[in-house]
């Protein structure tokens, strides 16, 4: 059978399950794990947040991860083609394209933030540790277009070159090297952080649940972090599933991806939360500071240790690996869509996706400088893209996946696809989750995210 002048057998594939696990885990593990997870865990109760998050990962997250992977492998298509394989009506067309467009919009601003990491790593390599610890350094840097644009282009170029090399030579090989190294570096930094005087208070806060801190927003925040962390509703799992061979155990590989992703999140929590308690006393202002935990607080901590350069180099190398592996998967999803839908070659698809990333990423950079007065919905350009994709499009994309399975593909067909290579013992739980639990959770995420953004729900 031919598609766009190519046979199905000509489609790229991962060399094996390990390559798939590493590439998918690499997609899931990114900046959200390094700074977003610790920030949310600290803000929403520490141990109670962690428990809720892990429960959601092994239930809702597991079901959605398997579903998108199975649909990708079943159809041998990225998100748009996977949806259209079951019909051409409007809901199917919309569902496919919203899954495909999400990574095309996220990749540009993700690479822009990746450029910040390039800048910090460069400064640490150059030995400029004292300047990084200054109060106004981060703000001064992100509001200077020329500096942010150069670093953004460097990060984007790294992503482009790896994706251009293809699935086996680029995406898979990079993931096999970068992911184990990321874990190793995370373990080293976490151990160092936990052994500082006063750090055990942060460890206890992170692991021991305080049920008095349980609230609706704890549940919503844990849902959102799990949802975004596993790369659900970004078209990525459809794409990577389409590269997975029929003998790839979907149940086992999904569990491995979840374990890897959750493990790195916990390591990130152990890197950052104990350090905040050890060096800054665990104040509410510092522990809730979000991005500044990495770009402002960490340099201050390293400088206060008197060993700023070497730990700083190690830390930001690790963060660079995490950011790069995720940006690769975001770009690969867009490239796969162009290859499938337009019949373009990988190189042409990479160039088009690269142009999109450069244009939208540059808009994000200008949003902190010359275009700072441009405030869609009262947000910066970067924050607007983040709100549009994370709060609106991704929950909708996942809801359409549920509709695709329930109404068009059929739950039994997806179950049988999983059974091709997996002893599927959790079939009944999976069916209940997809039919009832997942849609409810996704609707809660969608409504609460919008309500919180517009101030209708207090966080």
Summarize the SSE layout with pairings.
Elements (H helix, E strand, L loop, with lengths): L1 E2 L2 E2 L9 H12 L2 H13 L3 H29 L3 H6 L5 H36 L3 H4 L4 H6 L2 H20 L2 H28 L4 H9 L8 H14 L6 H7 L7 H31 L3 H4 L4 H14 L3 H34 L3 H21 L14 H29 L1 H9 L7 H27 L6
Antiparallel strand pairs: 1-2
Helix pairs in contact: 1-9, 1-12, 1-13, 1-16, 2-11, 2-13, 3-11, 3-12, 3-13, 3-19, 3-20, 5-8, 5-16, 5-17, 5-18, 8-9, 8-16, 8-17, 9-13, 9-16, 10-13, 11-20, 12-16, 13-15, 16-17, 18-19, 18-20
Overview of this protein structure:
Mean pLDDT is 85; it is low at 1-9. 77% of the residues lie in helices and 1% in strands. It has a single domain, classed as Hydantoin permease (Orthogonal Bundle). It has 20 helices and two strands. α3 (47-75) packs parallel to α11 (216-229) and α18 (381-409) runs antiparallel to α20 (427-453). Strands 1-2 form a two-stranded antiparallel ribbon. It has helices spanning 17-28, 31-43, 47-75, 79-84, 90-125, 129-132, 137-142, 145-164, 167-194, 199-207, 216-229, 236-242, 250-280, 284-287, 292-305, 309-342, 346-366, 381-409, 411-419, 427-453; strands spanning 2-3, 6-7.
């Amino acid at each position: 059978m031919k598609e766009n002048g190519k046979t199905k057998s000509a489609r790229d594939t991962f060399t094996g399950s390990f390559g798939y696990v590493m590439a998918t885990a690499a997609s899931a593990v990114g900046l959200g794990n390094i700074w977003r997870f610790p920030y949310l865990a600290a803000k929403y109760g520490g141990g109670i947040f962690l428990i809720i998050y892990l429960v959601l990962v092994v239930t809702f997250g597991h079901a959605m991860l398997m579903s998108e992977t199975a649909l990708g492998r079943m159809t041998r298509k990225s998100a748009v083609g996977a949806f259209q394989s079951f019909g051409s009506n409007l809901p199917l067309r919309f569902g496919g394209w919203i899954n495909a467009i999400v990574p095309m919009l996220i990749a540009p601003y993700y690479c822009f933030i990746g450029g910040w990491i390039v800048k910090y790593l460069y400064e640490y390599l150059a030995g400029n540790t004292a300047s990084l610890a200054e109060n106004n350094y981060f703000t001064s840097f992100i509001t200077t277009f020329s500096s942010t644009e150069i670093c953004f282009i460097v990060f984007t170029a790294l992503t482009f070159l790896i994706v251009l090399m293809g699935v086996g030579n680029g995406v898979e090989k990079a993931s096999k090297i970068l992911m184990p190294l990321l874990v190793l570096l995370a373990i080293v930094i976490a151990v160092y952080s936990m052994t500082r005087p006063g750090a055990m208070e942060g460890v206890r806060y992170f692991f021991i649940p305080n049920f008095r801190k349980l609230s609706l927003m704890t549940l919503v925040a844990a849902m959102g972090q799990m949802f975004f962390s596993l790369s659900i509703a970004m078209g990525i799992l459809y794409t990577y599933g389409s590269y997975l061979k029929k003998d790839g155990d979907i149940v086992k590989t999904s569990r491995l991806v979840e374990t890897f992703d959750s493990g790195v999140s916990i390591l990130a929590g152990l890197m950052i939360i104990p350090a905040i308690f050890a060096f800054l006393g665990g104040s509410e202002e510092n522990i809730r500071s979000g991005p500044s935990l990495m770009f402002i607080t960490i340099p201050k901590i390293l400088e206060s240790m008197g060993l700023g350069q070497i730990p700083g180099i190690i830390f930001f190398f690790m963060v660079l690996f995490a950011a790069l592996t995720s940006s690769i998967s975001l770009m690969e999803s867009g490239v796969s869509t162009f290859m499938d839908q337009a019949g373009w070659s990988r190189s042409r698809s990479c160039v088009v996706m690269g142009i999109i990333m450069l244009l939208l990423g540059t808009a994000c950079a200008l949003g902190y400088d010359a275009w700072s007065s441009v405030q869609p919905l009262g947000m910066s350009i970067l924050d607007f893209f983040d709100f549009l994709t994370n709060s609106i499009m991704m929950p909708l994309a996942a809801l359409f996946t549920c509709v695709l399975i329930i109404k068009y593909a059929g739950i039994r067909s997806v179950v049988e696809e999983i059974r091709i290579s997996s002893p599927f013992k959790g079939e009944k739980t999976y069916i209940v989750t997809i039919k009832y639990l997942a849609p409810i959770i996704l609707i809660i995420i969608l409504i609460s995210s919008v309500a919180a953004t517009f101030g209708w729900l207090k966080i």
